[in-house]
Fold these 4 entries.
Entry 1:
Amino acid sequence: AREAGLKETPDTAAIINRFRKQWRDYKTRECEAVHRLVAACIRHYNPKLVIADYNYPMWYNRPGFESLFDSVPKDLRLYEDVIDAHLPSFYHYNKKEAFDLIDVVRRALKKPVWMTPSISRADAVSGSWTSRAETLSPKAFRQKMLGAAASGCGGVMVYPGDHLDGLFFVEIDRGMAWLAAVEDFYMDGRREDQAFRVEGTPLSETQAAIGGKSVTLTQPGWPNLMGWRVHELKGQRLLTLFNFHEFHSLYAKVAWPGAKGETALADPVNGRLLTPDATRRTWTAQELAAGLLVFVEPEGTAFVVARPPQPGDEKLPIVTQQE
């Protein structure tokens, strides 16, 4: 009441109905003070310890997101100067929603962000931190890990981290091997997501009359089931393309309007070239501007590097558009 400049201490009903914002501001400042106190104690007794704060992701780019502080008064921006990293909880955010949200979180915060997804089986052995619908398959976890890396995260922290079957370790190992092939782009490159135009090819189309107009309905609804990142490094561009659908393969039409001269399209993970046909190993600027198809398996990730032709390209295996 004193901080809000009120003459009397309001009761619960008055706080909820009339002073919600003042209460929220008070609790976030109180929470900030607690975090600063704990961080100061840690620094005093062991300055070498890394302080990572478990917290909750927010849509910082949406108006009114501060209302979430009503229930959890952790405004990370107020005290991140005294911590070393963020561990945002991504238990209940998956697929395209998680892909979009982690990018918002990373851009809004100044300290490194380590996405914290959950691997739980929603059973009697490992508990039920997530519902069955939110439970990640090994492939889905690998994709979530790759999405965090492509979005600029410093790493991934797994919770609870026990009762994992062997397939998770297989997919984590596979994902780490893929990251090793492209990490220079993620760590040192510049984001240029708008450099490419990417559209999902529908598997079916239906004409329907809606509001007296003929409308084309497509399946699947790829805008909500795919995502991509583009990184530029030393004149080369890496496209990382994600298919979040559990069952359907994605055939994405990828166009690069800004291409100049002859360009090779390399798959850095599989060590091969994507070519227009069996007779050529490069693309013209006009062909890239018109677009080509890139295949991504269900819950998969594809990597394509657009670069100048290099010595040794003639020895690489190829995958043609027809294939």
Entry 2:
Amino acid sequence: NNTKNKVGIVFLLEEKKNIETSNLYIHITQNPIYASEAFQISTLGYFGDHKISMLHKRRIEIKQNKAFQLEKRGNLIVKDKTKPITYDNLEFEYCPNGWLNIIEEPIREKNGKAYVNLYIAGVDTYNTDESFYSDSKGAMYVKKRFLPEDPLMNTYVAELVERPDANEGGLELFYEHTMLVAAWYNSKVNIEYVDKRIFDYYTSNGFEHLLYQRPRLAFANKIARSVLNNPYGTDKTLKPHGLSLLSDRLSDEYIGNMFFMRQIDALSKFKYSKKYNCDITIATMECEIASSEDEMLEVRIQDEMGTRIKRRKWKRINGRIIEIYV
């Protein structure tokens, strides 16, 4: 009943001409004008029929089996506020309305020492404290890698999805919560580089060491032009490649190791569209990018790292970007 139907179709067809060829298939199938375009895709979601079917199956399994219902909600608190915030100065208090959702608390070595490289985190942030036109939230997921003789492996163990009101602390409260979670799990945090403030927050509070350095994926000829002005976080132009990596990871075994209902639901409904809020999916993607980068790293106990850790840096030498360790 829209009298401007024909004009609108002409406008949309012209809009297509400005879309890069590599992104045209996704645009057409996720935003079809004609029914024939909608039928070009075999699924209602981005990740394909089989993966979405397995996600739905996993959700049903968890709902019907209490053994899979492992989510525990609570708040992470600093035990002694006169001491530095470290993994052993944080404690999880169970609360049905808490801001943190976990499957298990961080595993410690028998003497209470934290493991290094056992956990990795991904974060998707947002831009403003208050939003009247979007339901976008900040999201964080922590993934546990492999530890010999530990039955729970290659699975997500912590979930944070929130958007605190300005009078509660706003963006900075979200930043603080991600920082506390990362410190508790002794994990690096990979963040999409779209808002510099979260990186500044970590740095100004002395937690720069928790920021995940710019993934090497950014230098693997994945983008036509890369300007190296951020030492941490994933370049936002890598999102299509990051989503492709996440899609490759979504095997039956991977999905069978998922326990967070909100994460499962978000992945099953994800669409690649600017109009679709995908904070949970993007936080999961950031985690998988870092996990892929570090899959050959050995899990060690904190003290085994020594007093000085060699860290990967990027430096411009004679006009070339060189990877060095310092």
Entry 3:
Amino acid sequence: LGDLYLQDNAPTLALPELQTAVELSPEGLQILVRYGQALKLIGNIDESREVFSKAYHLEPNFPGLAQMYARILIDIGELEGAISPLEMLINLKSSQDLTVYLDYARCVLSLNKLGSTKVPPMKALIALNEVLQIDPDIAEAKALIAETLAANGDKEMAFQAYREALDTSLIDDKNWLESLSYGFGCVASSIGKHDIAIAALQEAGQVNPSNPDIFKALSSAYLAANLPEDAIRSARNVLVINGDDPDNLAWFATQVTNLIRNDKPDFTSSPSAISKTISSEALNALAKAIQLAPTRTDLLVQLGNFQFSIGALTEAQETFASIASFDFATIDDLKTA
């Protein structure tokens, strides 16, 4: 009866019938799967995940179960858990649904961006190549291949892959245009193609002018191209977008340090007032970051190092000495100071 209700798209009516069936047959796979589906349809995601998990561990090869289980794990952000059922489907070639391969690649890349090294990016590449063998016109696969190659450090190949992806219909979508332009710009910058990097990152910034990461990358590209005034202008944009984030403030100070240390720009001959202002801007940024995050000793260390680098030796000494007065300072903090 519960199954019939589900077929009629009435999960609320199906739920009590399926719950009774589960109580009578707690390891009945078909019943568990249908019960999990009903729970998901009414929005009870956590309990649905538990039911799918139980069914999957009873019989992972039950038709359609691995994909449903992986999907609910992805939906709730448990990407690492989704890897196993997706890998099983790919290895057994038990699904002709290209979504399985694309979901797997997305999970691997997302985990990689979060710092996980459990699944190497090249495993995503294998899945994506399978997609293109089945259907060479899947544009998203081309885009994900570019991201995979970049994540794996294959910059030259990633550069070409991004070019191919930017030549697809994906660029009609603003999110993809931003992502691809940003990725292309970062890769181009890393292999010394600074003009291309700047153009790509400028386009990404036009698509989404509220993404600080774009302007961080653009600032670095300008600096590498020996365009210091453009570099500091883009760095300032980061603080315009979100100047209340201690990490952004610390990054700005680091970028100013890079500008000062860079041998190429000659600030003394610059017609602008850049040489007179960037040091004080960096000091102000670090002071604000410390105010926002007073227990972050790494910011104090950065401030002391910056003061030392600009010749403010007394202030640097005072900053380093102050770290010892904080109860939350660790031995490593004190050694660094």
Entry 4:
Amino acid sequence: FLEVPGLRSVFRAREHFHDEYFEIAHTFHFDSTSLRRLLEANGWTCLQSDEHVRALYAPPRAEAAALGPALGSIDTSEDARQALALADDGIDDVESLLDVLRGSGMRPSQVCFEVGRRLHDEGRSEEAVELLRTAHRLWPDRGRYAYQLGLALAAGESDTAETVEALRTAAGLMVDAAFPQHHLGLALQRAGRHEQAVGAHGRAVELRPEVAIFRYHLGHAHFSLRNWHRARACFAEALERDPSLAWAAHSEGLCWFQLGEFDRAIAAHERAMALRDEAAFVHRRDEARSALAARQEPEPQPAPSGLVVTLRRLGGRLRRRIGQSG
């Protein structure tokens, strides 16, 4: 019995689990057809297979009677798959779904994870948290479980320290996955730990340099530390990768304002305004305009002191007397 993600099904999963799939130490990656060709060429008989690839093969000269219990476990696993497929459209009765999955032979940690993940996807994060805590407790070395727990905690009103700890665990276990690092950075920012957030966001950028939103949030971590030049560079790089990021243009304008480059701040905010209708963009653009106008106005000359006025009068009288004497 083989059960691994098939190439035709893995990309239906959520994006942030793709990296984890390719971390699996497989020499070859199969779909149902290529796996069947390989095994049948070596004398095995395919009894059942799908694109996940959950497959049952009989070796040469295998006794059919010996395969009965294995076929039964395939049927049970299919019940679980169908129940989870229905749950993808919404979970009406959590306890009933849990009972079906527990009776299917799934690991208790996997049962809690699958139901908790779907509850989180429905926006029911508070319900999801307890199930995901259980999954993480039962299998603490499973990075995916720690990551999903961290996401659910971050979505609710949960303790920030627990959120950071879950995401830090996930990032440590999924060392080549960018999204756990990204979400760890966001949690650290919410906790006010901006220097650590820079490290997590920077790691996400290293792993996936093409993702604009990673650079955008790295810029915000630098902005919180008043690293205006570094923050501005991050926002500019985010815009290069995704020119539709209005908030990145706006944030670049905020950096230019802090650097005293008011004309560039105006241009950045106007770019943001062209992308999205936000009152904050207009307000910051007008603020930069006022600062630029104030700089361009000539400074008023100070009024002459009383001594200066007196000396000027004396000088005028003296010139008149000299003129009369001449």
